[in-house]
Specification:
By secondary structure, the protein is of the alpha/beta class. Helices cover 30% and strands 23% of the residues.
């Protein structure tokens, strides 16, 4: 026998090779998805495989571990130095001596799947833009005058099939010393298979990337291993621009009224990003020079300010973007410290003047463009971004909900932090409440609650808490369909108290009293009406009266109970089993773009076909907005909601109550 048959699983690819061929070479010739950084030198250990024992009738093979021969000295040294699980071999060292079936485990696959936490979410196929390659370069020769870079490029072409490589100047400046320090062996980081952006003497197998979501309220960062796709560290912080304006339009106003205001806001967001880089790299013990790429998403104004572009044009119609295309640049171009200066920055494309790269990230994460059913995706924030459609057609708009859902503009409101009320239940008969606060698993009426929350106290109410409180008060009849707090119930419950010309509900009478005021109700009504009206406009444009599935994204969307969202009328009626939370889907989209180069081409193409709807100039927006002020809605049917919960009879505020308010004013 002069050759042997090898079958690779799970791909099923097979072929016959001369005896003595190593498995890595066989895999490459067959196009088997198997990883390697060191090029077959038994250094990186990424090409591990598992030879299978037994008779495989399906493949017509009698496979034995001995058919790969005994481990050579180099493989034994690797096993001794780094360890190798029982039964595993390095495919770059294992030689074919007979027919064999070999399994390539997921962690040894180049394009392995990165597991997502939510069952319904798409897997991420690992294929990063930046890859590491180790090579040994021919030393210089007096009789063959060629530059160090040219000999490096030839080694990369010969060993890795990389053609026509170019190199960044900073890497070229370091090349000669690195080659000599590494005794003519070197590891290079190649971006998009075209350009060397970093290098290290000898063998190096660590490369990392960052995914950022630049929100108007918070900034989130995720540090990922580009070799495994694993998230090594995550961190977030308040956007320091808040001190110059709570919402996006107030920041545009700040720029217009303050010379150099745009530079001030740009400096603030870049300093925050740099601080987060330092935090996550320190936590994961990653050297700055090992961070070779960063991906950013953000709303259009955050997008422009990060890039140092004055966003004033976005402050008024026609809301013109400086660019809506994806952007690739050097880290040094935006002054991003704490990572390799030649690291590449990729910014996802924007969709429209107020529908940004963050919404593109949500689309990439949740994939409405891949669905047959009609999906409504809502990224709930200070400015809600809404996408509706399926694989045939996609529409998008933004809706100015304001910061009420994040606890702002609420009398006892606060952002989600320990001590904030996040869950509320109200007894329909007694109107007595019980609640949970962040940082405590107990309800307020359970033994031990006071002791557990003694350190933080009950400090306020966050977005999910205010939504649940209002929905429970509506279901209990305290808040009427028009949003009025029914003062006639004051005789039934001491929780309902006069407050000026209206009434309030006392949720908690502690060191800091937490009331639900009429002004609070109105703030949430305005926010939810804007959100619903935007969704309804898209439904009109798509020609549908109902949606098949709803995804709530964003920090607020991930914590809100779908039932209460529907009770208040934040979202259209839908089967509750078909409403889900996606968490920080924009950040997940950034992570997908970081780990999969094809995803970038995908979202760039999808964004081009999304139809943009500008709510500010749509004639029916005001009509939908007014109807959506009612709880859950003035006219829209809600059969799914009615099947899930008993809705109160629709009634408006009583004339007697209005008279009482007039007498108090007198």
């Amino acid at each position: 026998m002069t050759d042997a048959l090898v079958v690779f699983t799970p791909s099923g690819k097979r072929g016959r090779f001369a005896l003595g061929t190593n498995l890595l070479d066989a895999a490459r010739q067959l196009g088997v998805d198997i990883d390697s950084v060191c090029g077959g030198r038994a250094i990186c250990g990424r090409c591990q495989c598992v030879p299978m024992e037994g008779s495989f009738a399906k493949h017509g093979i009698e496979s034995q571990a001995g058919h790969l021969g005994a481990p050579a000295a180099t493989e034994l040294r690797y096993r001794e130095r780094k360890g190798l699980a029982l039964g595993r071999r390095l495919s770059c060292q294992a030689q074919l001596l007979g027919d064999v079936v070999v399994d390539v485990p997921p962690e040894s696959q180049v394009h392995r799947q990165v597991v997502r936490k939510r069952a319904e979410a798409r897997e991420i196929r690992l294929d990063p833009m930046v890859r590491l390659h180790f090579v040994e370069v021919e030393p210089p020769d007096m009789h063959l005058q060629r530059g160090d870079f040219e000999r490096l490029r030839e080694a990369l072409r010969r060993e890795w099939g990389l053609e026509g490589l170019t190199i960044d100047l900073r890497s070229l400046q370091r090349l000669q010393k690195a080659l000599r320090d590494g005794q003519w062996s070197i590891t290079v980081a190649v971006h998009d298979g075209r350009r060397i952006i970093a290098l290290w003497p000898g063998f190096h197998d660590r490369a990392f990337g960052l995914a950022f979501d630049i929100g108007s309220t918070t900034i989130a960062a995720h540090l990922c291993d580009l070799g495994s796709g694993e998230v090594l560290a995550s961190a977030g912080m308040m956007n320091p621009q808040i001190r110059m304006g709570e919402d996006l339009m107030s920041r545009v106003s700040f720029i217009m009224m303050n010379k150099g205001g745009d530079a001030q806001l740009t400096r603030a967001v870049r300093e925050a990003v740099t601080a987060l880089v330092g935090q996550v790299t320190a936590e994961a013990r990653v050297e700055p020079a090992e961070v070779l790429e960063a991906v950013f998403v953000g709303n259009p104004i955050m997008h422009h300010l990060l890039l140092g572009i004055d966003p004033t044009e976005l402050g008024g119609a026609p809301f013109a973007l400086a660019t809506d295309s994806a952007i690739t640049l050097w880290a040094s171009e935006i002054g991003l410290d704490g990572i390799h200066p030649d690291a590449r920055i990729y910014v996802l494309p924007c969709i429209a003047g107020h529908v940004g790269a963050d919404c593109a990230g949500v689309v990439l994460s949740e994939g409405p463009h891949l669905q047959d059913e009609v999906m409504l995706v809502v990224d709930v924030g200070t400015n809600a971004e809404i996408v509706l459609g399926n694989r045939q057609r996609l529409l998008a708009c933004s809706s100015p909900t304001g910061p009420a859902f994040e606890g702002a503009q609420i009398s006892a409101g606060q952002r989600a932090a320990p001590g904030a009320v996040e869950r509320v239940r109200i007894d329909r008969d007694t109107l007595e409440p019980r609640f949970k606060v962040i940082g405590c698993d107990l309800w307020s009426d359970e033994p031990g609650f006071e002791r557990v929350v003694a350190r933080s106290g009950v400090t306020g109410i966050c977005g999910s808490g205010i939504v649940e409180a209002l929905a429970e008060l509506f279901l209990g009849g305290v808040i009427l369909a028009d949003g009025t707090i029914d003062g006639s119930l004051a005789g039934r419950s001491a929780r309902i108290v006069p407050e000026g010309r209206t009434f309030a509900y006392v949720l908690h009478a502690g060191a800091r009293e937490i009331r639900i005021t009429q002004t609070d109700v109105r703030a949430i009504q305005l926010a939810k009406a804007a959100l619903y009206a935007g969704a309804r406009l898209l439904m009109d444009r798509l020609g549908v009266e109902a949606v098949d599935r709803i995804v709530l994204a964003g920090a607020f969307g991930s914590h809100i109970d779908p039932l209460y969202a529907m009770v208040l009328g934040l979202i259209p009626d839908c089967a509750l089993s078909r409403v889900s939370s996606a968490g920080n889907a924009a950040g997940t989209g950034a992570r997908i773009a970081l780990l999969n180069r094809a995803a970038r081409r995908e979202i760039e193409a999808v964004v081009q076909r999304i139809e943009k709807v500008e709510t500010a100039i749509e004639p029916r927006f005001q009509e939908h907005f007014v109807a959506a002020m009612a709880l859950p809605h003035a006219t829209a049917p809600s059969p799914h909601l009615a099947a899930a919960v008993r809705l109160p009879e629709r009634r408006a505020s009583q004339p007697a109550e209005a008279g009482a308010r007039r007498r108090r004013r007198g």
